[in-house]
């Protein structure tokens, strides 16, 4: 049964991006339901919603569908402000946003992904490697993955160096010297937490002895998550048809919004547009009627494939492209 707040998280459990959202919901004790998805396409449940966006996770609150973890976390901060994990002071907020950029857009996750061990069973599954080639736009052959590993390990080591010798150097427990993990800790920790779970880093390069402060920080974070999980509501797990039905029967979670008349794209409310990420998953475009556009997000109205009701798909603006349907543009 879905929670009263209508939150449904569509994800698969070892997605490092999904963990960002799961950790946040757990630390906040926010009730939610989950609909577990396949590791690779097709994802029929998401397709039934009328969403083309191919990355995981997505989060629905009613018939509003939020794509990209940056936007998802932003929306959760806004909708549940009491006890929010985000920084309130401008200087701390700047650090939080810089860490988000460093790990998501600045290449740290991409470098961590280059260290995936060749023995990983999924790398022997041609469906998975073909899917990831569609996702990333690069080869996922065994040899090409192997060739990228030294480069990835070098850059991940640099990340450990930054955390150990600069960000955590003064012995602080949490990034912003808070009493418990904040959003800044989630933004910084997730690719390092993930890469250590892969056991893909040579101990001669990255180890607890070389980076004791980073390892201790990750251990504290794991303990904080375990403690929060013991008292947080257990997420309900919905089957695909059940999740889609719940979304389709719900109301919208937020008002329609407006189109920023000063936006440089010059789009008009009600215009048919398409929107998609430009860094990965860029072959999959959402299309619909433009509902609103702000400096932070674009919202499209589309029809679900089940029930035919309207949904609203929310994309962030950063590293996403939006244009009127039928206009000339770069073919991706």
UniProtKB/TrEMBL annotation:
Residues 89-247 form the GST C-terminal domain. It comes from the Eukaryota. Gene3D superfamilies: 1.20.1050.10, 3.40.30.110. This is GST C-terminal domain-containing protein. It comes from Stereocaulon virgatum.
């Amino acid at each position: 049964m879905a929670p009263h707040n209508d939150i449904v998280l569509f994800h698969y459990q070892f997605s490092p991006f999904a963990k960002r959202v799961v950790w946040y919901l757990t630390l906040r004790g926010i009730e939610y339901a989950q609909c577990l998805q396949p590791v690779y396409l097709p994802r029929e449940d998401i397709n039934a919603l009328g969403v083309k966006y191919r990355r995981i996770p997505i989060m629905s609150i009613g018939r509003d569908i939020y794509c990209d973890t940056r936007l998802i976390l932003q929306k959760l901060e806004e909708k549940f402000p009491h006890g929010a994990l985000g920084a309130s002071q401008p200087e701390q907020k700047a650090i939080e946003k810089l860490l988000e950029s460093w790990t998501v857009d600045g290449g740290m996750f991409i470098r961590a992904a280059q260290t995936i061990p060749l023995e990983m069973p999924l790398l022997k599954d041609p469906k998975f490697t073909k899917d990831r080639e569609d996702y990333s736009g690069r080869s996922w052959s065994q040899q090409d993955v192997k060739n990228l590993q030294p480069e990835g390990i070098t850059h991940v080591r640099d990340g450990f160096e930054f955390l150990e010798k600069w960000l955590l150097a003064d012995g602080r427990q949490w990034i912003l010297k808070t009493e418990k993990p904040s959003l800044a800790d989630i933004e910084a920790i997730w690719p390092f937490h993930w890469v250590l779970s892969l056991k893909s880093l040579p101990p001669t390069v990255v180890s607890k002895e070389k980076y004791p402060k980073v390892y201790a920080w990750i251990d504290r974070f794991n303990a904080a998550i375990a403690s929060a999980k013991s008292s947080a509501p257990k997420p309900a797990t919905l089957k695909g048809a059940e999740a889609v039905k719940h979304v389709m029967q719900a109301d919208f979670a937020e008002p329609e919004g407006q189109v920023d008349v000063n936006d440089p794209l010059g789009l008009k409310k009600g215009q048919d547009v398409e929107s998609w990420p430009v860094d990965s998953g860029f072959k999959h475009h959402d299309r619909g009627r433009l509902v609103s556009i702000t400096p932070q997000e674009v919202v499209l109205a589309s029809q679900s494939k089940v029930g035919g009701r309207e949904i609203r798909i929310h994309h962030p603006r950063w590293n996403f492209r939006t244009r009127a349907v039928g206009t000339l543009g770069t073919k991706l």
